[in-house]
């Protein structure tokens, strides 16, 4: 198995290369005929779509408010479910849930790294 730091470094290098290519792509798009015009038209259509959605949400009144409340509760309960699953896993127990049709669900664990504010200083001897 490869060293975790080596793989991390490779990912960072690939992301740097991707960033350069993405910038070239955006420059090429900007130089293409009608691209800016189409982007502006798409923005206007998105704005019009948002206006229509807002109008319909207002017309639905309490029903749409209930939808938004349920959406927030689902997010909170999914976070709670994740916490319970991690605790259960750390206790060495099997993590599994079953739906109303007897379908079993097992968790998918994801590890992500985020930059910390800690600054590493190297001491010279």
List the main descriptive attributes of the protein structure presented here:
2 strands; 2 domains; about 120 residues; mainly alpha; two-stranded antiparallel sheet
Shape call? flat
Number of DSSP helices? 3
| Secondary-structure class | mainly alpha
Oligomer: single chain
Total of domains: 2
Nearest-integer average pLDDT:
93
Extended strand count: 2
Notes on the protein architecture:
The structure is a single chain. The protein is mainly alpha-helical and 125 residues long. The protein has 3 helices and 2 strands. A two-stranded antiparallel sheet has the order 1-2. A hairpin with a 5-residue loop joins strand 1 and strand 2.
Outline:
By secondary structure, this protein is mostly helical. Helices cover 66% and strands 3% of the residues.
Topology:
Blueprint: H1 4-30, H2 35-60, H3 62-90, E1 97-98, E2 104-105
Antiparallel strand pairs: 1-2
């Amino acid at each position: 198995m490869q060293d975790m730091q080596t793989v991390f470094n490779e990912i960072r290098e690939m992301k740097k290369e991707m960033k350069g290519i993405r910038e070239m792509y955006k420059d090429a798009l900007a130089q293409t005929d009608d691209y800016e015009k189409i982007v502006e038209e798409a923005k206007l259509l998105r704005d019009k779509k948002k206006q229509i959605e807002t109008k319909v949400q207002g017309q639905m009144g309490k029903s749409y408010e209930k939808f938004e409340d349920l959406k927030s509760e689902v997010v909170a309960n999914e976070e709670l479910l994740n916490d319970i699953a991690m605790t259960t896993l750390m206790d060495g127990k099997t993590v599994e849930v079953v739906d109303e049709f007897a379908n079993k669900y097992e968790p998918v664990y994801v590890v992500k790294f985020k930059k910390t504010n800690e600054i590493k200083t190297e001491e010279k001897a």
